[in-house]
Amino acid sequence: MGGPSTVKDVEPFLYNLFNDPDIIRMPPVANMFQPIVAKIISSTRASKSAKGYESIGGGSPLYPLTKDQGDALQNSLEKRGISAKMYIGMRYWHPFTEDSIKQIKADGITKLVALPLYPQYSISTTGSSLRCIRDEFNSDPYLSQVPLAVISRFSSRPGYIQSMADLVQLELKKFQNPSEVHIFFTAHGVPKKYVTDFLDPYQQEMEECVSLIMADLKARGVSNSHLLAYQSRVGPTEWLKPYTSEAIPALGALGCKGLLAVPISFVSEHIETLDEIDEEYRELALHSGIKEWGRVPALCSYPPFIEDLADAVQDAFSDTKPIVERNVELDGKPDNKVVMAMGKVLRTWQGQVAAVSSVVGSSTYLWSLF
Prior knowledge:
- By secondary structure, the protein is an alpha/beta fold.
- The chain contains twelve helices and eight strands.
- 42% of the residues lie in helices and 10% in strands.
- It starts with 9 loop residues before the first helix and ends with a strand.
- Residues 335-361 have low confidence and may be disordered.
């Protein structure tokens, strides 16, 4: 998704976000009004959002953190004898996916792996990034012939699961009574109708991911209680439940004294982790009677995580096809080819390899092979 570089960028960033039909789905007859709706929402929310970005340093840290991830991934591939070039592309702020794709063409890339940095697939995140890639490649005679591989999700990959379990275990040790701490997974929410009406696999993949992490922890002797909740709801419509803002007070009322928050849908730090979780939810937890609070850091460039991504990229090299053979997979719909695929889309949501990043709080890598 990307994030505003400075506070003055907040409103145009929000406009780009809410002008995406995958974020706000309007009836076809009302599509012409989407820019107006986006303008109203972005101007209304800009002031509050700007305060959040001010509290974390005046802008989103997503781009520099994504670049660090990309550099680490590129280094890992080069150690394996793979010459790779990384491009970062974001959906709603600079560097835009479209601009990164133009650079990929200018550089004469001949093979590409797309890796959106969303662990779980959603039509509003990975799906939006894939559609952008599809449209850009289909409209260009050169790009339409470039072999492309897609890594559409990676939340059940062993390396990702083990990396998350590592960080949870490390943070638990900081509590006075680690075995009594409640492990609280908090994921970015989506409207419930995405799952019920549009068959978005996001909730199912999220629940499966949490189960795999807890199974890994149990094998290490960690059997704490846990809960999955959803944050960042916007507007009056119903989103996936339970809501993080309601689940925390409920846990406090049940006598929970130690809470470890685990941002499960984010691989980089950004406003949802640094402000919403670290400030708003921490204060809410303490106000709800929870005495000890902790938060698992985002994976960022955690070496085992990077190595697992490198494995995914390397495996994807054998499955590159021109865009005309990828269009079904890249239409953003959660059909079986996409839903069951393992991995990521290298942001552009990524022979040499080029990577690109995208969506709210996330990016895509495009790895191009010469």
